[in-house]
Every structure is written in C-alpha cells, then in structure tokens.
Amino acid sequence: MKIQDIQAIQLLLSTPKKIAIIPHRGPDGDAMGSTLGLYHFLLKNNHYPTVIAPNEFPDFLDWMPGAGKVKIFEKDKGNCTKILEEAEIIFTLDFNALHRVGVMEEVLSRLKAPFIMIDHHQFPHDYAAYTYSDTSFGSTCEMLYNFIVFLGKKEVIDETIGTCIYTGILTDSGSFRFPKTTGTTHRIIAELIDLGVKNTVIPNLLFDNSSFGRLQLLGRALQNMKVLTEHKTAYTTLTQDELDSFDHVKGDTEGIVNYGLSIKGIIFTAIFIENKDEKIIKISFRSQGDFDVNQFARDHFNGGGHINAAGGKSESSMDETTQKFEDLVKNLSI
After folding, report:
1. Which residues does 290 contact at the CB level (< 8 Å), separation at least 6?
2. What pLDDT, on the 0 to 100 scale, is given for residue 251?
3. Averaged pLDDT for residues 27-38
4. Pairing of strands 89-93, 71-72
5. Euclidean distance between CA atoms 117 and 94, whole angstroms
6. Can you tell me the distance from the alpha carbon of 322 to that of 314, in angstroms, rounded to the nearest whole number?
7. Where are the domains of the chain?
8. Do residues 176 and 199 touch, judged by C-beta distance below 8 A?
9. Mutual orientation of helices 293-300 and 318-329 as an angle, nearest 10°?
10. What are the pLDDT digits (tens) for 210-254?
11. From CA 314, how far away is CA 302, in angstroms rounded?
C-alpha cells in the first residue's frame, strides 16, 4: 500500500468517525471475517462502525464475534440506507466492483464519503479513494492483518480480532492447502494462535456442524457428478427441486464444488446450482495447478474470481448450460 495512502487513512481515523463496512453479496468466511475483524478493530479505536451485508450470510458463520450486530440490507433497506448516508468513511472488503453488492449498488454509488477498498481479486474498479488491492494474497483477511500493521496498530489485535482474521484465512486458503498460502500466512496464523485464537475449535464450528439435510444434499450432488476423464474435468448439478427437497438453507452448498478435485487426475471442476427466484444457474469453478478458472469464467459465464477459484452465472436452462460447459471443456488444453 502506498505510504501517502496509509498516512491519509491514519489522518482520517485520527478522530472518532461513523464508519460503514461492506462485504460482497453472498458473503463467505473471508468476507465476514475481514468485515467483522475490521469492525472490532475500529471499535477498539473509539470509532462507530457498522457492518452492513447486502444479504444474509450462512448459518455456519453466525458464531463469529459480532455476527449478531451485522445489519442485512435486503431485510432493512430504510435503516441501512440511513446508516450508509450518515457514514463518514465506507470500507469495502473482499470485493472490488460495486455491482458485487447487488441492490445496494444504487445507494453506494451516490455516497460522497471516501471509500477504502481492501481486496485480493483481479481487475479492481476505481470507485475507492484509497485502494489496497493485491492478487498475490490468498485472502482479504491476511490483507486486513497487514492493513492494521501498516496503520501502526498491530498491538490492538486481540483474540476477538484474531478469531475473525483466522476464520477468513482458513476458509479462503482451503484449510491452508491452496497455492497462495505462504510461509508468511502461517507466521500470521501462529501469532493469532499465540493471542488465544482457538485453532482446534474454529474448524469444527465451520465444517463439522452440518444439518442432516445438508448431508443428504451433498449425497445428491455426488450422485449427480459427471466425470469427463479424458478432459480432466468433473462437474455436478443441483436443481431447485433438489434444493427444496432437502430443506436447503443458505450455505448448504458451500464447499461441494471442491469434491470433484478429490478425484484422481481431475484438474477442473464445477457445480451448477439452479436459482428459480433469480432465474439463473449459479456456477462455481475450481482448479488445481495453472488452469485459470478466473479467465474461463470471465470469457464464458459472465463471472470471475481467482486463478483457482471463480464463479459465474447462466440465464439458460440447466441442460443448455451444462451442455455449453461440456462443449467448451472438450476444446480446452488442461
């Protein structure tokens, strides 16, 4: 981050401010970890922060410190809009384009307060007065740790802030398995554990509290999986009827896409999930090695993300969408 930007932000934060903190729509562990980590950091520095999520976050994150204080824009547009309009600073974390907040975009796009972006995705938009953007990081939470250090406030990080940061690093690194997990990542994790972060408890809260319905849904997704062996690709589908039959709630499909990569020889995997309310097929892509799913998603499915993890969408039917996917895969060099 540029020295002059750090100094400008230090000046902005030198007196108590009303501050809004925004994750992307459909917030995951890194989005909620970074926003809640920043929330607690700002509280400890005598500010008045509010986390406003565009929509609900998954149940498996509701144990996080401060989760009960998060405002949901889609459930309380009037009050959330008032908070945003009164904010003196707007932080946007784990996204870099305002369309990622859905219907909140209309409000954010007309605010006059300075925006501060912290994010690790490619191709950042230029809406922020101050931008900390770096695709070399595996998570926004690791960048938040650095941001606090840049501000000269490392000593403020405590178990609560550390728990939030740890959660985002853990989830976005695939439990420390993804390529952008570095020695520095592990050194930060070690420091957080030394502060009291419960590294043996948090993974259980995140990954081992499934409902019976979610396990049944996982079973159906595995039954639906199709393997294109000669193209080193696997994909699966879940229709709206299948989601409904297992009492699907937000977050139940989290991580299912990764199962394809556990198959020997598979480099590229995807999951296609029907959403009848939005009239789209939501898509998640994952890969191993050098195959760039970010570019694949951008080129073919109106999406994007990271080299090894990206998302997209289709307005065609499930059959048409998966057929398009198969046709594309057959012409790839994986």
Report:
1. 307
2. 84
3. 97
4. unpaired
5. 8
6. 10
7. 3-206, 212-329
8. no
9. 130
10. 789 999 999 999 999 999 999 999 999 999 999 999 999 888 998
11. 8
Can you point out the beta strands (E) in the chain?
18-22, 48-53, 71-72, 89-93, 115-119, 130-133, 226-228, 233-238, 268-275, 280-287, 304-305, 309-314
The arithmetic mean of pLDDT across residues 42-62, rounded, is: 96
Helix (H) or strand (E) holding 177: none
Least trusted range by pLDDT, from 36-45, 140-149, 210-219: 210-219
**Superfamily of structural domain 3-206:** inorganic pyrophosphatase (n-terminal core) (3.90.1640.10)
State both tokens at 9. 């932000």
Residue with tokens 């909140």: 104
Q: What is the mean pLDDT of residues 259-264?
A: 96
The helix/strand/coil state of 281 is strand
Q: What is the pLDDT of residue 41?
A: 98
Cβ-contact 69, 51 below 8 angstroms: yes
pTM of the model: 0.89
Task: Determine the average pLDDT of the residues in 10-14.
Answer: 97
Nearest-angstrom CA–CA distance, 36 and 252: 22
Q: What is the pLDDT of residues 292-322, one digit of tens each?
A: 999 999 999 999 888 899 999 999 999 999 9
**Residue 287: partners with Cβ closer than 8 Å, 6 or more residues away:** 261, 267, 268, 269, 293, 307, 308, 309
Q: How far is CA 117 from the centre of its chain?
A: 14
DSSP 125: -
Joined together, the tokens standing for residue 10 give 């230090």
CA–CA separation, 155 and 171 (whole Å): 25
- Specify the fold of 212-329: Diaminopimelate Epimerase; Chain A, domain 1 (3.10.310)
Name the nearest CA neighbour of 258 among 150, 156, 326, 178: 178
Please list the residues that pair with 275 across neighbouring strands.
Answer: 280
pLDDT at position 118 over 80: yes
Helix orientation angle between 159-172 and 140-150, rounded to the nearest 10 degrees:
140
